[in-house]
Protein: Tyrosine-protein kinase
Amino acid sequence: MISPLISLKSNSVLIIVTSLLLLCINFSIANEDYYYYYYKERTALYSLKTVLNNPFLHKVWTGPHCHFNTSIWYGIKCSADGHVAELVLENMGLRGNISESALINFSELSVLSFKHNYLSGTIMDFGLNPKLTRIDLSGNSFSGQIPASVLRLSGLVSFLLQDNSLTGSVPEFNQSSLREFNLSNNNLSGFVPKTTALELFGLDSYSGNPELAHYSSAGSKNDIAPSTGSPDDKDQSLKAILKKYLYVLDVVLLAVVILLLVLYFRKAKRLKKMMKEEAELRDRETKYSMANERIKGEEKSRDHHQIKSVEVESSQRLSVSNNNNNNNNTNGIGGGQAERGKLVFIHGDDEDDKREETFKMGDLLKASAEGLGKGTSGNCYKAMMEGKPVVVVKRLRNLKPLTEEEFAKQLLLVANHQRHPNLLPVLAYYHSKNEKLLVYEYVAKGNLFNRIHGGRGKRDRIPFRWGSRLTVARGVARALEFLHLNTSSPVAVPHGNLKSTNILLGDNDSALVSDYGLASLIALPVAVQRTVSYRSPEYQSTKRVSKKSDVWSFGGLLLELLTGKVAAYAAPAGARGVDLCRWVHRAVREEWTAEIFDGEIAVNRRSAVPGMLRLLEIALRCIETSPERRPDMSEVVREVEEIQLVDQSEDEDDDHGHSHERSLTDDSSMSTIASGDYRR
Ligand SMILES: Nc1ncnc2c1ncn2[C@@H]1O[C@H](COP(=O)(O)OP(=O)(O)OP(=O)(O)O)[C@@H](O)[C@H]1O
Structure:
């Protein structure tokens, strides 16, 4: 951006300097001209003084003859630029023979008068006195012809040459400016030319010329001879022409300089503007990227400290005091309708079920948070408050556009479902225009997915044995049964998203099913993405989530428990899964059932095998393609509970006499499963 400005600047400066240099040269030439002409005039005046030889003139014609337009020399007037403009020496009794070239150095001369003296010689050449307007040489003794150069005096007003001894013809004067004209009393001859200018003057102007006829009827053929001039004259005229050109050049150069300056300043202004705009743009970009960075930073810190971001909104608009002890709540939700900005604790209907409101929104806002994971319905954060129980905050997103009342109503349904030992209760919720939060107890042992798949092959992995898996299966079955049978709910709410990451592990491997009841809050397109039940075969035709689709999901969960393989439809982001239903069906069909079970289940426990096969059988019935052929959850619970829970310590025993594979293949149940007779 700067370089064009510099190049423009340097070019312009070069041109300006050159132009100024030329102007200086011109000026010095002009100056030199001035002095040249000044001294030439002076020399001519001195020559004239010598010729005239007049004591008076000798006395007064000294020093500089012109100082600008003033002169101390007698008979001389100067022009503004210090040249002789008038030469008037009248009635002084002057004598002398004036040369023809006596006036050639007076280029500015406009008035010449030597009238009434005794001067002789020929009439001077006026070829280099173009400004002459008045010539009065009357009353002298001039002889010879009237020079043709008088015809070139275009501004001639007065021409008085009477009373001399002139001979020859009258030149063809035709200057329209001519007002006074007298050639009387000379020895002129021929005809007075018939020109418009001369027609103005009568006989008096020609009288006293015996051989001169007043009008030339034939018209004079007097050619105006061009001034031949001396070499010096030629030099003068050349100089005059050169001077004229130099003036023109000066004007042109000056115009160029002005033009360049104008262009330079305009371009500089434009460049300055462009640079300013560019700087502004850069400034804006910097601000924009800084803002972007800031937003990114904010997003990042929101991810890590999500709860903190609520603080801004809450502290601005919301009261942090939360514990609503108002018991006029008929719906079972603590405090009835959520007051704007308050954390609303969810209680059961009866007094016994009242939760202790051990923390407030303010505590939550101050808590340090740790991200647990990004679900499709929102992100989960572990919130650690000082001196308070650790909780999990689920920041909901992709919600249906529900009003606060509708949101509270849906949570009421959840609240009514929550009082079961295998369902993770929602402790509280928070609702504002921009923020919807659910608060849960924190379950330290984590989720079933990590228990099955986490740390495989690592030495510190605690094996997940058959007894624990069966306990989990029972707990989940009971929780689902509870959800499906809950008649107190005005709307039947299937879980809709049953999968191993939504099953948390409490004490003694008790299952805590979470994430239930959210399907009614989430916008449908997102719900389709997240909800495992939507992947059930019948969803393609019915487009509805049902209790039977929950059964299908439960079947899938049992397969995951038994095989230790990740189910593709329920795999969290980043985990690759297999189509467990197809895989297991194939294994059963091809009678390599022994390979179905996770090697870690019961390393060498023969006693566990019947239960495992029984659970596999139940799982296969749950994943029947036709929903009608699937058992309902009550049936499933009964069957799962019939499976004998082997002594936990047996899980750990080593039975070196029987290999795991042999135990399974030897079992007669295998043939039952393979033949498909597990269906009741
Ligand atoms: N109360 C809790 N205690 C401990 N861990 C929890 C608790 N609630 C959720 N988690 C864990 O936090 C993680 C994120 O859960 P979240 O429900 O947001 O996503 P998801 O279960 O992976 O997917 P989806 O949104 O489909 O349910 C999961 O690993 C989940 O097991």
About this structure: The pocket of adenosine-5'-triphosphate is lined by residues 372-373, 375-378, 380, 392, 394, 424, 440-443, 446-447, 497, 501-502, 504, 514-515, 530, 572 (CB under 6 Å). Confidence is low (pLDDT under 50) at residues 1-7, 216-231, 291-340, 653-669. The CA atoms of residues 127 and 227 lie 7 Å apart. The radius of gyration is 63 Å.
